[in-house]
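Protein modeling request. Please complete all fields; requests missing the sequence field cannot be processed.
Requester role: graduate student
Desired output: 3D structure, C-alpha cell encoding
Chains: 1
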Amino acid sequence: MENHRENSCRERLSDTLDSEFIGSSRVKSVHLESTHSPALLGFEPLPNEIANGCKESLPVTRFLEQLRPHRALNEIGWTDIDDLNDVARRKFQLPPEPVLITKSGIILSGIGSWQLALSEHRQHISCIELDINEDESLQYILAIHRTRSRWNSFVLIRLALTLEPHFQQKALENMRTGGKCKGSTNLSKANRIEVRREIANAAGSGTGNVDKVKAILRSAHPNIIAALQNGSLRIHRAWKWCRLPKSQQKEEFANYEEGQTRRKVLREFGGGQSRESFDRRQVLEALQLFETCHPSQIILRGSTRRETVVILGQDLIEEIMTMEDANRHA
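Delivered output (330 residues):
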C-alpha cells in the first residue's frame, strides 16, 4: 500500500513536470517517462513520510517575491552559488530544471533558476507546487542534494540537525502511542539513538559524523566552521581540533591552511623536474643579475602567508646552472 501511494505521488509529479506554461494558462501533456522526472534528474526516492503524505503536485506560476529558500538555509548562512552558476551556464543549452516549491513558497529545488530570474528582473516563474509541510520540505531538499554531491557532508548534517526537534517529537509520540512512559517529556536512550539515526539518514551520513558535527558547532572557532561549510576542511580534522582552546584551534587551522596553500602553489608551478638544493646566495645573485639584464621580467606577488616561498622559472634556473658551471671551471 505504501509503495502504491509513493508511486501515485511520483506519477502526479512526473505528469506535472511535463506541463508547458503559456501566459497565465497551462497546457498539460502527460508523459510518465519525462526527462524531467525526479529519478532522471538524479533525485533520490522521496522519503516514505513525504511520499505517503503527498496529496497533489500542481503546475503554477508565482511572483518571484512569493518564493524563498528554506529558513534552515538562512540560519546556517548557506548560499548555493554553484547552482546559480550552473543554471546560468546551461541556460541556452538544456531545458531548465523545474523549480519545485511548497504551497507556502519554500523552494525545494531550483534555487539557482529563481536567483537567475531575480537577477534578470523577471516578475514570474513557472513552478511545480507540492503539498508538503516545512519539516517535510527540508527532508525533501536533503534527499535531492544528497545525490548531487554539490553540498558537502558538513552542510547536509548541519541542515539535518535543524530537524532534531521534529524527530524528537516523533519519537515521543511513538513512545506514548506504544503505551510507554505516558505523559513523559524525556526520551529513552534507545529513542535518542533513533533520533540520531534519523538525522544521519536525512543527511545521508553516519551517526558518528552527526556527533562530530554537533561537537564542532558547540566548540569550534568560527574560521573552522566557515572552512567546513565551503568544503576546504574535513569533519574529522576539525573535530580533533575542537577539543583545543579556540585560540589554539585558530593557530592549528592557520598552519593547516598555509600548508595547503603551499602544496597548491607547488603543484601549480612545480611541474617538470624539481630541485630543492639551490644555494640561496647563488639564487639571490642570479636574481640581481637577471633583473639587470632583463628589467621587469621578474614578477612579484604578495601573499597572506607568513612564510616566503620563492618559485624559480626555467629562465632563472638556466642562469643559476650557468653560474655553477662557470664556478666549477674557474
